[in-house]
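MODEL INPUT / OUTPUT PAIR
PAIR INDEX: 1
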Amino acid sequence: MYHQVLRISFIFLVLMPVLTWAQEKIQLIGSVPFAKDGTKIMIQQAVPDRLKSTLTKDSTVIKGNQFRFDIPASGPEYFYLRIDKRNVGGVFLDVGTNHVMIADSLSKAFSTRNRISNDDYVLYKKTNRLLTDLEGSYRMKRIYYMQYSNGEHVDADTLSQKEKSMEEAFVKWRRSAREAVTDWIRKRPGSPINTKILYEQLDFMPEEEVKELANIIPDSQKTNTWAKELKYRIDSLFIGSTAPDFSQKDTEGVDIKLSDLRGKYVLLDFWAGWCVPCRKANVDLVSAFPKLKDRGFTILGVSLDNERQSWINAIKKDQLTWFNVSDLKGWDNPVRYGYYISSIPANYLIDPEGKIIAKNIPANELTNIIEPYIQKINSVN
């Protein structure tokens, strides 16, 4: 009997950490002094694009100026709250109990337990207040540029000046944001907001710098959604990583799998028939392809089209003789999410072993860029 009790106790002790982890959650207890009973309040988790189909959404009603949410989580996460149709802002919530009061905005939110995440995020925003102004300046100049470019009377010089002003504002904003994130992480490596703010700079920071900063963050702070997706991007989409495999149907309904093309250099090209810059890039790709296709190179086009006939018509008109696939779900194509494509045309160059060796090669430079690789593989053969 003693041995049985001892054995059961041992099993419980072994399983206890697993059970504790599985039961981890974020509990939000909120106070809304101005809200009437029955007012609907909604919460939505902020997540990277690839995970949008799995994000947490929930709603409840306010009673006695109070509300509560219980959300499974393994680390601090960022959420947006909405009362009826009014957005009241975003807040970092930690695993454990979080008490939040909503007066006019979440700038007055506070946490009575594990408050470090939201306090850090508020401090980060306050310390880098200039970033808000720089972002606002860029977005305003972008609006001016778009409005002018779509106007009836467009002067080429004026349009060029507005475009230049917009681009300069963008560069200034992103450079300042990159410097702010780098400075924050180096000075506060253990801050629980680090994985989120670093993730937000992935597309504007050299990959080696991202990896260096990611290594500074201790493993104890790599438990939330942003940390996991940061790891996915580094392990799967950075130069030297093995490109994520996928399969989609071509125009004949035949499944084409990326890994079936191993042994060749593959340009994974994201485009769409409705995309004017993509169609222009196709001209250069069509010109380069005959020189390369019999020398260990091919192209796999992934279309973000919605309509089958439009997609097929574009392939025929542009004379795209390489592999072309699509699920005809437009921007909801899971391959687009898996490769974090935010604009098209976009591409990845993949070597015969399936490793990513280059990204977003200009179509008119493809031959010059791929030629040394092709010479290498042909010399081996």
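PAIR INDEX: 2
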Amino acid sequence: MSAPAAPPRVLTVAGSDSGGGAGIQADLKTMLALGVHGMSVITAVTAQNSLGVQGAWELPVEAVRAQYRSVVDDVGVQAVKTGMLASAELVEAVAELLAGAGVPVVVDPVGVSKHGDPLLAASALDSVRTKLLPVATVATPNLDETAQLTGVRVESEGQLRDAATAVLAHGPRWVLIKGGHLPGDAVDLLTDGVEEHWLRAPRYDNRHTHGTGCTLASAIAAQLAKGHSVPEAVAAAKRYVTGAIAAGFALGAGIGPVDHGWDLAPGRRGGV
């Protein structure tokens, strides 16, 4: 009896969250939930829980390169997602690797944690702008990350278009500006500078949203690996993360994670 065919393969290049709510751990859970095979290149290790980040240690560039080549040269990938890259050296090394990947790349330009802890050195911002964003198929900054990268501060839905234009100027094919920090419905703008797609979802009264950004970017990468177009992939990812937020649960003494398995088994919390 022959072995089943392998599912689409997605690689996450990101940091480890010891609490399991964000980072590599959230990425792999998301990929499993969406039916793709997740693989990882760990760029940094954090000591992290529901209260915040207590410590972070980046890996050497040669360790990151070796992990990437080990996976890509043997297994191959259909999409890549990047998260915490920590330093200019790591940003530039990863951007160089991805420039020759030949597959969709989702860049989540992680700057700070949910608790406000810095996860990217200030000296790395220019490398993100000039090296990483130009290789992105889709960039997924939140409003704080958009301000960090472009200086454009968004305080209303009407300003999302200006923010998107500013990010697109750095070279990604598409940008998804996440407006989740604005009042009202959770509204995001996806655009390539010509097409515009406005994505709306109800805002749930649930503070347990740790890992939202990682989860959304990984879900987009998973859908791209399945062959969906960027607008289709982002719309499907938005539906998935909305359900995960609705089902987010308390864990520890602080902010709990979204529920990556909300749609997998009977009796799970939440749903959309």
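PAIR 2 NOTE: The CA atoms of residues 174 and 191 lie 6 Å apart.
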